[in-house]
Amino acid sequence: MNTEMYQTPMEVAVYQLHNFSISFFSSLLGGDVVSVKLDNSASGASVVAIDNKIEQAMDLVKNHLMYAVREEVEVLKEQIRELVEKNSQLERENTLLKTLASPEQLEKFQSRLIPEEPTPESPQVPEAPGGSAV
């Protein structure tokens, strides 16, 4: 880095921040690093130019992220459509099976779904390692 042409620490810091920002955003987007030289005679304009470049880079990142989010939303919408379709098919199949089943089969099936009430037993106290209850 050639910082001899910058007279104040602020100019050097702006130059370094600019190079870091452009390198960072370019690496995120897979592009080439863009280099812009700052001129001492127009340091105010250079700061504005740097701000504009940073804003452009941030807009590129924002656009890239929005595109990625839109793609993911489309994938999720497709998965939802598939799941709704499968759910509808299973509901139709369930209805058909209920109509074809005999009352005895339905009763047997219902009894499997409802767990039997457990009989009240005396509470069990865990034993301590020594064999006595604590």
UniProtKB/TrEMBL annotation:
<dbReference type="InterPro" id="IPR000580">
    <property type="entry name" value="TSC22/Bun"/>
</dbReference>
<comment type="similarity">
    <text>Belongs to the TSC-22/Dip/Bun family.</text>
</comment>
<keyword id="KW-0597">Phosphoprotein</keyword>
<protein>
    <recommendedName>
        <fullName>TSC22 domain family protein 3</fullName>
    </recommendedName>
</protein>
<feature type="region of interest" description="Disordered">
    <location>
        <begin position="108"/>
        <end position="134"/>
    </location>
</feature>
<dbReference type="GO" id="GO:0006357">
    <property type="term" value="P:regulation of transcription by RNA polymerase II"/>
</dbReference>
<feature type="coiled-coil region">
    <location>
        <begin position="66"/>
        <end position="100"/>
    </location>
</feature>
<keyword id="KW-0539">Nucleus</keyword>
<dbReference type="GO" id="GO:0005737">
    <property type="term" value="C:cytoplasm"/>
</dbReference>
<keyword id="KW-0963">Cytoplasm</keyword>
<dbReference type="InterPro" id="IPR047862">
    <property type="entry name" value="TSC22/BUN_CS"/>
</dbReference>
<dbReference type="GO" id="GO:0070236">
    <property type="term" value="P:negative regulation of activation-induced cell death of T cells"/>
</dbReference>
<keyword id="KW-0175">Coiled coil</keyword>
<dbReference type="GO" id="GO:0005634">
    <property type="term" value="C:nucleus"/>
</dbReference>
<dbReference type="Pfam" id="PF01166">
    <property type="entry name" value="TSC22"/>
</dbReference>
